[in-house]
Amino acid sequence: MSKINIPVSVLNLVPIRQGQNSQEAIDSMVDLAQATEKLGFSRYWIAEHHNTSTLVSSATPILIKHTLENTNHIRVGSGGIMLPNHSPLVVAEQFGTMATIYPDRLDLGLGRAPGTDMRTANALRRSKNDSVYTFPDDVNSLLTYFGPEEEQGFVKSFPGVGTGIPIYILGSSTDSAVLAAKLGLPYAFASHFAPRYMEEAISIYRKQFQPSAYLDAPYMMVCLNVIAAETDEEARFEETTMQQFFLNVVRGTQSPLSPPVHNMDDIWSMPEKEMAKSMSSVTLVGSKDSIREQLTRFQEKYNVDEIMAVSYIYDEGKQKRSYEIFKEVVDGR
What we know:
This protein has 333 residues and is of the alpha/beta class. The protein has one domain (8-230, 284-331): Luciferase-like domain (TIM Barrel), CATH 3.20.20.30. The chain has eleven helices and nine strands. The mean pLDDT is 94.
């Protein structure tokens, strides 16, 4: 079987499954990191969300540190750190410290959204000014903090100086594509929940990319949903966990990651179904053969440099198997 020659990675929002508590969700996060490391995935990124009782990914650097100390070689990073919530210097010091303990294993993905609702965002913000607009300056500050000592200003990040931690711009709109291209940084698009502008953002990033000290050519990563199983029928059944996850988002409710169901039409209305499906339209779902066909078609159209997979599957064994099937497809097995 032909190999689809592309690195693949993992995104984890660290959801609490029905019947779990917060500690068990964190244990599941580590368990999945260890499993995907053994499977040969390139990196394992952890999201940042706040005031969401069903996700435990609020203190992202602590979860990254915990994952690093419980794995051996997989790269671990943020998908992402939401910069409006943080001082760049504090981020530089935290990540600089982790990079000192775990050299050449850390990635820093940066986003400009708050990762929560606006009332919570106001509670998180470091100032009353809208720091979303300072995002480009904040990214440049971090690039400087991690750069060589001779390029530093009066304020420096100790540790952090000279670590050269790779920075990725994350986005779900074309604005982030323009910024990533202008700065010559790798770009990761959030197709797993906001696919609407994916094609346009990829095109803008590639057309406007300016080579930099960090990258000679564009590096395009896309995050998408993957639900793989032994048969198409089983995968479609497991997919209902993800559909319930997105229904939560549509309704603004906070239910834990739920077991699959036989008929989603018993749960959602037609408008809710349409909204949830539009958010999750970039999903690979099915058996190994189906995943291979869908991934090949995706790559023929977009030819991205790396795919990051998120798999909302309730049964942890089946979730690991989904990642295993996905990796087998990529490896041509």
